[in-house]
Write a structure and sequence with these properties.
heterodimer, A: mainly alpha, about 70% helix, globular, B: about 300 residues, alpha/beta, Rossmann fold, Alpha-Beta Plaits, 2 domains, six-stranded mixed beta sheet, 11 helices
């Protein structure tokens, strides 16, 4: 032990470590986007809705697998009243739709309103990078919402299959590309338009309301026009049924178009028309968002 | 001795539609603490945005740390920091989280970003507040957070746009003190301000803009003559004035008010000797420091 001590003032220490430049800026923006939409490092009220929606998205899959387990144990000959992967997309679509309506404004609007874009503009990041990475964050979270229950079902049903777990995994492998494609279609069907609304709206609540309103009103209007008029070509009013296009294409991918009872299917539009509509809306939305951010940053 | 220029401009111009914000701007600014001086609308923020690569000049070229400001935007942004004049802070996260994010955006790995964030928050005096949400910060704390994000990645050059805007006198003193210390950390500084006293306090070189043109540029000492004495006499100062002129002093007089400066030596000694030799009585005498503001107003014709 010593009775003497010394205080060393190290002062300012220059940084001489690694600098990752644009790669580091992209990774940081991507992580921030994911954390932001789930309310990570934010107040509790920011976490509530996204996590509730995620639970709502996954919970039915747990019920499906649990019910299948009970049937396989107590009534092996009975058919499960629940469907498979295609039907589950219709279930998660609603929660994903609401989640996207909340997440897209959260990703874009605070940075603009609080002036944080000025910080991004001073870092090794271009406007196109910012838009691309924010979009990637949203698409990732949509994929989590859609794929998590699908993976749970895929593994759960394989575990209950009489042919054995690994054999069932291999046998059902044909479903995997369909699941991935359908996820991509839903992501493209919902995210770009939500990002467009978030780009041209100043407040988060207004953006969420506008997005939900435009999609609901468009779909309702399409249904009303289909029912109320006898005009030739009225079936093309179904193009306004923004909410229904992804499901129409998803059922086409899974070969379950016969199950379709939405506005687009009722109008008799081919699934490829829905796919082209989705791609066109995504392209126009993406172009407007990029144009706007090139002016802002 | 001055090193190679860290900021240069050649015939630089920028227009927003029909409004010309910068016109034929030329400069070579060496390392150090540089004050960018001008009234509101002089083109200061436009110049900073061109240097950051946010705006593309309509004509001419600019370079930062030897890189073309238009072509090498990402390389430049990796090596400089920027403190905007306006709000730029996320209000719903704490200062430590924001600083880690700001360092990550500049390309620092996660662990290094955390360490730098902690160090820099301590440096700007926010170590006690690092886990408080920025939304609850005072204006002074927000300004210090803005400065912290600008230097968290240890840039070679930091651009500060009106860093004392909105601060009370105490906050202003603290901010000017921090800016003055940056040079000692090896960080070159460009401070944009219309408060010329701030530039005098923090900078050793000045670039004056007026109406989008360069009014003047040079070392601060080139602009400010600190050895000027103001004297107010009781009676007619004519004999006193003639005595000093005969000894080579520069003298301006108006009634009983006399302003004296000398090319060499202490003007106070000369005034004292002249007062004694001519028996002139005085009401007051004191130093008159020519401020940057006087220089700017004189040259801009305002």
């Amino acid at each position: 032990m010593t009775d003497q001590g010394a205080v060393f003032d190290l002062g300012y220490v220059p940084y001489e470590g690694e600098r990752r430049g644009r790669r580091g800026a992209l990774a940081t923006t991507y992580r921030d986007g994911i954390a932001r939409v789930f309310g990570v490092r934010r107040r509790a009220r920011k976490k509530v809705l996204p996590w509730i929606l995620l639970v709502i998205s996954v919970l039915p899959a747990v019920v499906f697998v649990g019910f299948a387990f009970l049937l396989s144990t107590f009534a092996p000959e009975a058919e499960s009243p629940f469907g498979g992967h295609a039907e589950y997309f219709a279930i998660t679509a609603a929660t994903v739709f609401i989640f996207v309506a909340l997440a897209a404004p959260e990703l874009l609007i605070p940075d603009r309103r609080e002036g944080v874009l000025a910080i991004y503009s001073s870092r090794p990041l271009l406007p196109d990078d910012y838009v691309m990475i924010r979009s990637a964050s949203l698409l990732t979270v949509i994929a989590i919402f859609m794929l998590a229950p699908q993976v749970l079902m895929y593994i759960g049903f394989a575990a209950l299959d009489d042919a054995g777990f690994f054999s069932a995994l291999v046998t059902n492998a044909g479903e995997i590309p369909k699941i991935l494609l359908a996820t991509g279609v839903y992501a493209l069907g919902y995210a770009p338009f939500a990002l467009l609304i978030a780009t041209i709206t100043k407040r988060r609540g207004a953006a969420t309301g506008t997005y939900l309103g435009v999609v609901f009103i468009g779909t309702s209007l399409a249904a009303a026009l289909l029912e109320a008029t006898d005009l030739p070509g009225r079936r093309f009013a179904a193009l306004l049924a923004f909410a229904d296009h992804p499901g129409h294409v998803s059922n086409w991918i899974f070969g379950t178009s016969g199950l379709d009872d939405n506005v687009v299917a009722t109008a008799g539009l081919d699934p490829w028309v829905s796919l082209v509509t989705i791609l066109a809306i995504a392209a126009v939305s993406g172009a407007v968002v990029v144009w706007r951010y090139r002016r802002l940053m | 001795m001055e090193g190679a220029a860290i900021l240069t401009a050649r015939d630089l111009g920028h227009a927003y539609g029909s409004i010309v914000a910068l016109h034929s701007v030329d400069f070579d600014l060496p390392p150090g603490r540089i004050g960018l001086v001008g009234a509101n609308g002089a083109g200061k923020t436009t110049l900073i945005k061109i240097l950051l690569g946010i705006l593309t000049p309509t004509v001419g070229t600019a370079s930062v740390l030897g890189h073309d400001a238009t072509k090498d935007t990402l390389e430049i942004r990796s090596r400089i920091g920027y403190m905007p004049e306006d709000d730029c802070l996320p209000l719903d996260i704490n200062a430590a989280q924001f600083l880690v994010q700001a360092a990550g955006l500049a390309g620092l790995p996660k662990d290094a970003a955390r360490q730098r964030a902690s160090d820099v928050l301590t440096l700007v005096g926010l170590e006690e507040e690092r886990f408080r949400r920025i939304g609850g910060f005072s204006t002074g704390m927000k300004q210090r957070t803005k400065l912290a994000q600008a230097i968290v990645h240890d840039p070679e050059l930091v651009l500060l746009d009106e860093p004392t805007a909105g601060l009370d006198p105490e906050g202003r003193e603290e901010m000017l003190d921090l800016i003055s210390r940056l040079g000692g950390f090896g960080i070159n500084v460009l401070v944009s301000s219309h408060v010329l006293g701030d530039i005098e306090r923090t900078c050793d070189r000045v670039l004056m803009l007026d109406g989008g043109r360069v009014l003047d540029s040079g070392a601060l000492s080139h602009f400010i003559d600190e050895d000027v004495v103001d004297v107010e006499t009781i009676d007619d100062p004519d004999a006193f004035v003639q005595h000093m002129i005969a000894r080579g002093a520069n003298v301006e007089s108006s009634g009983v008010h006399v302003r004296v400066s000398t090319a060499h030596g202490d003007p106070f000694d000369l005034v004292r000797d002249a007062l004694a030799a001519t028996g002139t009585g005085i009401r007051s005498m004191g130093p008159k420091s020519t401020s940057l503001e006087d220089v700017f107003l004189g040259r801009s014709g305002s």
